[in-house]
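Minimal example, chain plus magnesium ion.
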Amino acid sequence: MSSEAKRSVSIFGATGSVGTSTLDLIRLDRNNYKILALTANDNAEDLAKLSIEFDAELAVLADPSGLAHLQQLLSGTSVKAAAGPDNLLAAAHLDADWTMAAIVGCAGLPPTLEALKHGKTVALANKEALVSAGALMMAEARAAGATMLPVDSEHNAIFQCLQGARIDHVRKITLTASGGPFRTWTRQQMASVTPQQAVAHPNWDMGAKISVDSATMMNKGLELIEAHHLFPVGLKNIEILVHPQSVIHSMVEYRDRSTLAQLGSPDMRIPIASALAWPERMETDCKPLDLVTISQLDFEAPDLERFPAIKLARSAIESGGGKPAILNAANEIAVAAFLNGTIQFLEITEIVSRVLEGYSPPQPESLDDIFAIDEAARARATHLVEEMTV
Ligand code: NAD
Ligand code: MG
């Protein structure tokens, strides 16, 4: 990006794991980027610090009660402070060349959809938005001519393997999975794991929610649904393969039986860099892949009995309608309850399963329908959490 004008960037979820990794990359090439908006949920301190460092035009907190504090932290600087859902939405139609969607959970759906509706180039990390409202998001993106750059490492790998290809020439997509921290554990052993054990991922350093999702393997279930929306090859042609080293980030097999894979160190800055510089390539200081030291790559089939989340996700997307939104909402509530010590690890997927079984709303036609389903599923999951804690 050397001789061109600066690329203007907004980052939703700037204080999180993906958000700060994105800013780390921008630090390496500071002069080629101009930061428009940075957003966070309620962490005014970190948001103010980053906004000042990167000379952002606007800093937005999703939580309106933090506005006064943010204004105070930003007083005397040129960064404008704002807060609340409307301002979060407004930030999505600033004139950014590139928008990072890195809010965690379905809370990221409104600003992500807003950016897509305005035909923006959106780097998508926020998989929960696509799980809940994939059909709607893809339709809006198509209608507005928006560009979606997948950031999730598997989907970024697939996107790279598909460059220059025809999607109807693809025979199979293989999503790789590390298997998480409990890959070799029995259900009995998993019954008593603590949040601390669950967030300690063997390969990746990530936010708490996605770390728990990796431990239950719901993350791979969400990624299956994400892949189904991003790459229309048919659900039955998307497979999951456990690969504990996380070196091969995913693969695409073509009809001539040629298979392309993308490899790299397990560092989210690599897929983020590929989206940030797209369609060019930027220099990074990430660890190069050293296959001699790694020496061996292992593969195994996922165990659907020990990790039922994968089955739940596949059947939710097969059923379609509101089921994926229900799966996601129930999972968000259950993961939060596990992280705060209210329920046991295995109860996460039990709650998701029970909410999916007990709730079959009519086909959602709009964003409002999806939010209504999301809310109802959250209420049902919350009720089950309460039942389990008495
Ligand atoms: P994180 O918890 O580290 O950060 C989340 C960010 O979203 C923070 O900036 C937080 O302030 C903001 N946020 C949280 N709740 C919000 C709300 N209700 N409204 C507005 N903003 C809110 O999460 P993360 O690990 O960076 O993950 C972000 C997204 O990227 C998730 O969807 C995750 O699945 C996906 N992802 C993450 C990784 C990773 O390595 N961390 C890898 C692949 C995909
Ligand atoms: Mg992933």
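The chain has a mean pLDDT of 97. The CA atoms of residues 175 and 240 lie 5 Å apart.
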